[in-house]
């Protein structure tokens, strides 16, 4: 696939993609290997919604990630794995080896009875086997559901049960900096309530002692000895599901966002090549975890489709010290580096002294993703990491969009700090006002929608199409609603200002306030709680919980500890509130709705500008909350 080379080419490509989207995307799709081509490029309507790309086309994404490259790149490194401990051995896997490892593991899955359409849950550390197993699922047409290994047993069980997975892939333990965590124990606890799981395949990573249930648990290294390494690809329909990935919304339980084979493939490679301006021998590193969409699209699929060398990092940015990222960049001569603002801010706090030993001279492109990047972090990244020579690409997208939708193209689009700038070709964003009317022109602000389909967009929520319709396609008729607020400046550049719904973004992790409230409410002394986000210097947003308790004689400190542990058990450490305030009442309207707008302002310390409180059932609760802040 050819990439865009200049800004004028971007403009003409963009124009083409709007005037004739089908022709535009057909050209891109033609660069892949298809078992048989589509009979129609696109079918769509945003009411039901129903979106189909490359209708009737047959393919397998792993043939395009692996087999396709064997002729010219079989000895090229596909994956460089950098272990948690820099003293341990680095693993490099060529395309040929990866092809063989994926095929072997595909046969392991088959030997456990896995068939096309079955759902497989992956709950694993950032080791090469995670990427291998993800691709193995795709190779045999099984739908992967990767669950981030920081989630609790309960959260894991909820996701396994929702998707009715029949195999779980996990490891004995995982290393994260100085910490060692026993994943198998967590998996065991989860599986107590997961009847659908027939086999659990366990990778040996830490070697810690775990228990294995003879009728259900199998060692990875033993299983791969039992099968051969030839596995033909399963022929998939372009609109067969490729994966499910759970994400949080403003209400209730997490949603299984579903992506389909053909469109996802085309957009993953297209966006990867163009945004990062990937060139043949570049070393590319995205620091995300494969448990999130960034890892799916821009550690595994996008780079491998492009035949790139992609780095997988097992550890954390501060181990063994806060120079680890830069050490890895120098060691592997990274050209394209992609991380989250929260990591930049956290490392920025260590000062520039720590950067001294590193050259960082190989870097060309620096990416940012996951949350709005503040001006200070942008400038620090540009100056101290990019040495004012690298392009910063602030990439806006979502689990649901499958790929980057708004972003500069590296060294092609003029950047502007805090701005994601311009839509990629094929993407038609629009800004709408509270009544759903599109706001035309520049220097405007409102809610961000997308008014035309793109190949990697969400197709449905697993077994809950109605929810897909309600959440994304009902707020503004005929448009996909992102949940984000946005401004368009006088030059037509986009700046994403953050969520406008009850979703908070903590260190780039998306967390539904309702989920945290449900977690807190599991504590037996909690009567009611309300959770909001507040501005946090490193995490972007922190979690603030207002809690009403039953009468009790337990100390506040102990209660806070217990409640944090309850959330830890219900969801995982990422959802633990940063601040807890016990209150006697919550600001509610006469119809009983909590006015979060007020709670958000209080959490941010904006007491003077609380807006209209006259519709509150009991306006005095507001003063009482403010008065009792510790
Ligand atoms: C939400 C999606 C997309 C991969 C990681 C997060 C926020 C994401 C940006 C950005 C401002 C951003 C939005 C979005 N977000 N990237 N460059 N600038 N905000 O995926 O967990 O699905 O979260 O992250 O609020 O809606 P996700």
Number of helices: 19
Can you list the ligands bound to this structure?
A: 5'-O-[(S)-butoxy(hydroxy)phosphoryl]adenosine
At the first level of CATH, what is the class of the largest domain? Answer: Alpha Beta
The poorly predicted ranges are: none
- What's the arrangement of strands in the largest beta sheet? 12-11-8-6-7-14-15-23
CATH architecture of the largest domain: 3-Layer(aba) Sandwich
* CATH superfamily placement of the largest domain: ANL, N-terminal domain
Overall radius of gyration = 24 Å
Kindly state the number of beta strands: 30
N-end to C-end Cα span: 58 Å
Largest sheet: 8 strands, mixed
Q: Helix proportion of residues, in percent?
A: 25-40%
Give the CA-based shape.
globular
Give the count of structural domains: 3
Strand content: 15-25%
CATH fold topology of the largest domain = Rossmann fold
Q: Compute the average pLDDT.
A: 97
Structural class by sheet pairing and helices? alpha/beta
